[in-house]
Amino acid sequence: MAQRTVLLVLFDGVQSLDVTGPLEVFVGAEQHTPGTYRIRTASLDGAPVRTSSGLTVVPDESLADSDELHTLLVPGGQGTRRPDTQLTDWLREHGPRVERLVSVCTGAIRLAQAGLLDGRRATTHWAYCDKLARDHPAVEVDPDPIYVRDGHVSTSAGVTAGIDLALALVEEDLGRDAALAIARHLVVFLRRPGNQAQFSAQLAAQTARREPLREVQQWISEHPGEDLSVEALAARARLSPRHFARAFQTETGMTPGRYVDRVRLEHARRLLEDTADGIEEISRTSGYGTPEAMRRAFVRTLGAAPSEYRRRFHPTSTH
């Protein structure tokens, strides 16, 4: 297997975790399978850079000295808010030449400024998706997934999503066992699927201010298979159904029904990805009642039936 050179671009104001997260994944892969990766960091002139958190990072080399790249990774951070003509020109020249072009978080803005995302589907940190779409209309911005792969170009959402994307790339290169070993060492999930939403239901919704509503939110997450009708939840919060529904939406920004739907879908997805439980059992424990009800929810939200969704992660599964 030919050694792949992975280069991480550094600049002042870079988000340190955008760099160190993927870096640890590729270093772990090299330790797992020596000779697989040659990992380098580079700034424009080879000088140290100061990250957005104040950490100083000393690169291995200057971008001018970087050649024969396989994977070029551009992180994000506050520094992407400032125009950098030299870096943009370098990316415009070298980006099309690499085997894999990768961005983490607002690193996608750097790629877009260099015209490298034109005509492609891409994502970035949820807070900057609108800006990316507005400033670069030739880019098809998808604000939901944690990462998007379009041909040889891969873009990821904020910070930790870079780890998920790096694990997916390592799995592509070395196989699932290697990626699993690295994920275990880093104490992270073996790659969240790219089409997983940037926000879980708990993150997408605001946390309710009043304690009874907060307790109901937590109870929903822990008991997706229970009766989660408005009437049942209202009784748990000791409120009338009408008052509960209105208060829940006001305080969380999401209706009770929508919140329950998202929790149940996430629960079912985790079981499909991480267990060998049958479709019927998963539909029951996730609160759908029947496999057909779960199938409709998956097709409506994810565009794939549960069995097809599982095959994406376990191609040999017969469940």
From TrEMBL:
The keyword Transmembrane does not apply. Keywords: Transcription, Transcription regulation. Gene3D superfamilies: 3.40.50.880, Homeodomain-like. One of its GO terms (molecular function) is DNA-binding transcription factor activity. Residues 214-312 form the HTH araC/xylS-type domain. It comes from the Bacteria. InterPro entries: Class_I_gatase-like, DJ-1/PfpI, Homeodomain-like_sf, HTH_AraC, INH-QAR. Coiled coil: none annotated. SMART domains: HTH_ARAC (SM00342). CDD domains: GATase1_AraC_1 (cd03137). This is AraC family transcriptional regulator. It comes from Streptomyces regalis.
